[in-house]
């Protein structure tokens, strides 16, 4: 229910990808009041941030390997050659190795070697956690903004086909592909898009989680393409409030909010209101666990799924589809 309402509202508002050839940036807010300085974190992590320039725009990137940068697919578009500018002011060429439009990720090999690799955290943050965004909004290289995690498991009409982190850290055109950092300086997401105030939004930015980023980029580097196993269901974490509201007795699992008509989940027997507690013989404590199972699975694979339906434990089998 909630993803459908969110998607409908965002469809009305319109999605703005944050490359520097788009509309003006939103007025930012969200810096944590009373928080200590993050100058040391920025100093330590800035060398792993880069600016990615193409003929008709500019975006950001993060050092993934000593000679590989990750950025957004919509930053590089159809370009095979880009220019990379580094935190020390130097610049080099870069070759786009592979892209994945569904996740909106791309990998670029840099002419410069021995780059400092960023530290990535695959653990999802919590709503309310402090975050920093580093990028080149409107071409202003290595700009830092601060905010909090506003929500998890977001989806955007016309956006990447993965669940996103929502943040109120100011994100503007040119931030695309840059790092969303936790307070320790670990990359928790790749900045993706924002919705501008002109559409009625206030500090609505989105980032691709690092777990998804690392999985997709590994496949891009090894195989040059990515197949996305597809469940066909919208899921939510079980909070005490949700358990109380819907009378759910199980304390862990992923709540099925919606099932896509004629999708793999529906064909396998999943229903809205089910609580997924196990997949492929792995316990499910929340949505993140389901995503991890999907990332490690193959398109067409038939996976066992255990759900709590009321007071009963039901065993199902779902044949994963492909996006």
UniProtKB/TrEMBL annotation:
It comes from the Bacteria. One of its GO terms (molecular function) is serine-type endopeptidase activity. One of its GO terms (biological process) is proteolysis. Keywords: Hydrolase, Protease, Signal. InterPro entries: PDZ, PDZ_sf, Peptidase_S1_PA, Peptidase_S1C. Residues 235-311 form the PDZ domain. Gene3D superfamilies: 2.30.42.10, 2.40.10.120. Residues 1-19 form the signal peptide. Pfam families: PDZ_2, Trypsin_2. Belongs to the peptidase S1C family. This is Serine protease, S1-C subfamily, contains C-terminal PDZ domain.
